[in-house]
Amino acid sequence: MRGFGDPRSGESPYAQWPAYDVVSQAMGGMMGITGPDRATPTKIGPGVGDTIPALMLCIGILAAVNRVRETGQGQFVDVAMTDAVLAMCERIVYQNSYTGEVAAPEGNRHPLLCPFGLFRARDGQVSIACATDAFWEKLAVAIGRPDMATDEAFATNAARVQRQQQVIEAIEAFTSVRTKEEIAACLGGKVPFGPVYTSAEIFADRHYAVREMLVDVEQPGSATTVKIAGVPIKLSDTPGAVRRRAPLLGEHTEEILFAAGYGAEDIRRLRQEGAVR
Predict the structure, then answer these.
(1) How many Å separate Cα 245 from the centre of its chain?
(2) What is the rounded average pLDDT of the residues 193-205?
(3) Do residue 183 and residue 210 come from a single domain?
(4) 44 and 90 together in one domain
(5) Given 50, 83, 147, 237, which residue is catalytic?
(6) Is 194 in a helix, a strand, or coil?
(7) For the chain, what is the domain count?
(8) Do residues 191 and 236 share a domain?
(9) What tens digit of pLDDT does each residue of 25-45 get?
(10) Are residues 181 and 161 in the same domain?
(11) Hey, how many other C-beta atoms are within 10 angstroms of the C-beta on 224?
(12) Segments forming the whole domain that contains residue 57
């Protein structure tokens, strides 16, 4: 994995440029469609310019391993960070190709779907996504505007996209005077909906506890445990898990060297020479 890929897969003019998360977010198109308005491109909060390419590389490695099992032949696997981010932003490619439109930041709205974004609540914001007219009909009834479910001006997604501001105002007339919890009681399970959570709210939500996504681990030097994020991929026969904390520097040196076949005298000599810690 490199910022702009290995020259053996296609020699980028930037092949020798170093890169970090923010570079791949910027040049892969993600920042260019994220932000409060067209003039303010914005970095995504988590390091998706690092983690998305890592996921892509994992998929490539698994595909190559599967090929080895079929043919006995290995192969070179290469992922450019910028390429992986662009693949996640694929909408900007076909928008430009089909229509000539250059996608830009649109805040918490969506250029092709309505309603699809964030809406003000009394104590924060909530996400509502009605990508189908059937969901819109349920939402319109739930917010006390059944007329908007049948009115031709709002009944179809195409019509709602043309009248986004009116749709948003109608929804926020309902959400802005209610708490996130109150809105969840009205919309949860009826339409695609979720409150915008803080980390404190994530810690308080039973979903993450029962899904084992907040895992207690020992913290050296502390009498209390700390929590780290769990494993999101759930496998029925070979489940992954967080089983221990990350090791301290040099904590397992002897264990690893013994397992590799080194004897006690070898390890003592390596320590004296400063080769291991």
Answers:
(1) 24
(2) 96
(3) no
(4) yes
(5) 50
(6) strand
(7) 4
(8) no
(9) 999 999 999 999 999 999 999
(10) yes
(11) 7
(12) 7-99
